[in-house]
Amino acid sequence: MPDAVADVAVAGGGLIGLGVAWRCAQRGLSVTLADDVLEAGASYAAAGMLAPVTEAAYGEEGLLELCRASLARFPAFVAEVEHASGIDVGLRTIGTMVVGFDADDMRALDELYDFQRELGLAVERVTAREARRREPALTPRLRGALQVADDHSVDARALHAGLLATAQAAGVRLVRSKVAALCVEHGRATGLRLADGTTLAAESVVLALGAWSASLPGVPPLPVRPVKGQILRLRGGAESPGPLGGTVRALVRGRPVYLVPSAHDRLIIGATVEEKGYDTTVTAGAVHDLLRDAIEVVPGVTELQLVETLARCRPGTPDNAPILGPSATPGLALATGHYRNGVLLTPVTSDAVAELLVSGKLPDLAAPFAADRFERWNQCG
Ligand code: GLY
């Protein structure tokens, strides 16, 4: 016998799962969300960049559009969360600087500039001197920079805490137990089986387990894989405001690194991108490389205290875009595969999946990101 019945059971308590659960509850659905360790997923490691422009790559224009739509929703989303939870989630809207060191880095920045201009995005070339006027902690050794007005950041951990409080205040029931399997009866998803032996029966199930989405027993095949990221957190003295006003991304003689200021931990430095399965070991080599490159960009990083090193798995997909909406199993909705853009895509994913569960229709904006796109790819292949 099931121990609980809900309109919606959400598997996964990261930003995506919480956002979907909250929006569903706001729309009148009864929602239970299950997860055991809320710090185990990518949300806990995220630097909090809201970076549709500087994360954009050639061939990913569709994803860029979804990211920009989500960014446009961010101020209202944050205002609602802050109002409901009383937690300041540290939204910074002063833009992002991208800096380079050698001729190859500058060529890469030129390409980024041209691509962004082609797409009509706000980007400005900045001399090294001007870059240092805007961010005095930058090294005098950089060659030049771009200023991207529309890439922002948020404190991802504060946003998670805020969303958790907001979702629960809206009526979401949180069950702190590991999700063991998707329950399927007569080909339809009917709920979640938990590791503590209980079952959450639900009309609809939402899969928001990030990098673990494809490995949950009972879930139909999904092209989601873990992509390891190692990241560092540093702090100055209690009175120190931190070295940077806004996010700085750099190519340091071809090696990418980003430095994201944060109100709590003064600086977040990231991140590796590694195909290592579910390994979350922090390696000396990665810490060394990230610190070496960050210190090249901002020499004052040497004075900061290294307070945390960690690794988590991003949910990667073949086209780097999320998988949203219906699945091959009726009753199972997908909110996964957000790869490098999970924080940014939380508002649009939450709205789109809640809309699907309430009205039966995935909004047009999200429709290109449904799972059936991979079937079409396979047929073409
Ligand atoms: N969005 C940055 C990262 O995934 O490292």
Written account of the structure:
It is globular, with a radius of gyration of 21 Å. It has 381 residues and is an alpha/beta fold. The protein folds into two domains: 6-46 and 158-224 and 318-380, FAD/NAD(P)-binding domain (3-Layer(bba) Sandwich); 96-149 and 226-316, D-Amino Acid Oxidase, Chain A, domain 2 (2-Layer Sandwich). The strands form three sheets. Strands 1, 2, 8, 9, 10, 11, 17 and 18 form an eight-stranded mixed sheet that branches. It contains nine helices and 18 strands. Bound molecules: glycine. Residues 49, 229, 270-271, 314, 340 line the site of glycine (GLY).
Radius of gyration: 21 Å
Low-confidence stretches: none
The figure for the number of domains is 2
The CATH topology label of the largest domain is: FAD/NAD(P)-binding domain
